[in-house]
Design brief:
With about 300 residues, the chain is α+β, with helices and mostly antiparallel strands. The chain folds into 2 domains: about 180 residues, Jelly Rolls (Sandwich), CATH 2.60.120; about 110 residues, Homeodomain-like (Arc Repressor Mutant, subunit A). It is built from 11 helices and 9 strands. Helix 5 crosses helix 6 and helix 6 crosses helix 7. The longest helix is centred in the middle third of the chain and has 19 residues. The chain is globular and about 55 Å long.
């Protein structure tokens, strides 16, 4: 199990899953959420998680869900989400299984996939399925989930034992998920297209009309979608992504503050400095010194 202290995303906000191999599409990790920022992201993999310590919130387009220590759940494939530690809970550590459904179900045209996996994976209204220790119906599944992270990876037959453990947990979720459950059923494809446009054009002078056009929606619907799905405005999202890009450049590159300001679409260095300080609580130069000193 790999310890995670940072998040790596592709331009379309899909998370990069290091070690996710075609011959065994699975990775496990231990995320130290109080030590880095989790951005809005998605992945094709199914996510099973267990909160080992601390307390966190999951944010999805359908709302916010709190998870104290000892709880866990499932995040469906392709769902936009982010997690945030809840203040005062101390260190927040989350254990994760990320796997492609084919690992357990085989081919998508097969009977196992269609009968036992499609009811959850193909349901757009199912974004997040929580498990809580105070719920008697969830306790047995949580015990299985917690134990699944303790399988010794160097033991003979590890891959088969892991697949068996994940399959048992999946069958529990099928029993816990009522047929035809409704949670809104909204598609996130438009917002993904608009996010991708921002990621590809953040260095330019982006207008809301440009973002809306990328998602094939009106400006009014663009504002509604950003607020509904990401709980922010298009303008704030653009600013946040520009700051994220600037942070990467400050850490990884040697460009001047003025060069980075222009590359990230802020224009003047003075405006960049003011915006950066408001967002991160320090100047760009101080941020660069902090992280470059840490890397030594």
């Amino acid at each position: 199990m790999k310890d995670i202290f940072e998040m790596r995303l592709q331009e379309n906000s899909e998370e990069l899953l290091e070690g996710f191999a075609a011959d065994f599409p699975y990775v496990s990790s231990r995320a130290h959420l109080d030590q880095y920022t989790v951005f809005w992201h998605w992945h094709r993999a199914v996510e099973l998680f267990y909160v080992a310590c601390g307390s966190l919130e999951y944010h999805t387009p359908m709302g916010r869900t709190a998870f104290p220590a000892g709880s866990g759940g499932l995040v469906n494939t392709g769902v936009l989400h982010t997690t945030r530690p809840q203040g005062g809970a101390g260190p927040t550590v989350q254990k994760l299984h990320l796997f492609d459904a084919s690992l357990l179900a085989g081919q998508t045209e097969g009977r196992i996939y269609q009968k036992y996996f499609a009811p959850i994976l193909a349901a757009p209204q199912i974004e997040l399925l929580p498990l809580y220790p105070h719920n008697p119906a969830h306790r047995h599944t949580l015990d299985k989930l917690k134990a699944s992270f303790c399988l010794p990876q160097d033991a003979p037959g590890y891959e088969i034992r892991l697949r068996e453990a994940l399959t048992a947990i999946w069958l529990d979720f099928l029993e816990l998920t009522p047929p035809g459950r409704e949670q809104g059923g909204r598609s996130s494809e438009n917002i993904k297209r608009m996010m991708l446009y921002v990621h590809e054009h953040y260095s330019e002078n982006i207008q809301v009309s440009d973002i809306a056009a990328a998602g094939y929606v009106s400006e009014r619907e663009c504002y509604r979608a950003f607020q509904s799905f990401l709980h922010t405005s298009p303008g704030e999202y653009v600013k946040g992504y520009r700051l994220r890009a600037a942070c990467r450049m400050l850490i990884d590159g040697s460009g001047t503050i003025t060069q980075i300001s222009q590359s990230c679409g802020f224009g003047s260095a003075s405006f960049f400095g003011k915006t950066f300080r408001a967002g991160l609580g320090m100047t760009p130069s101080a941020y660069r010194r902090k992280w470059q000193d840490t890397a030594k």
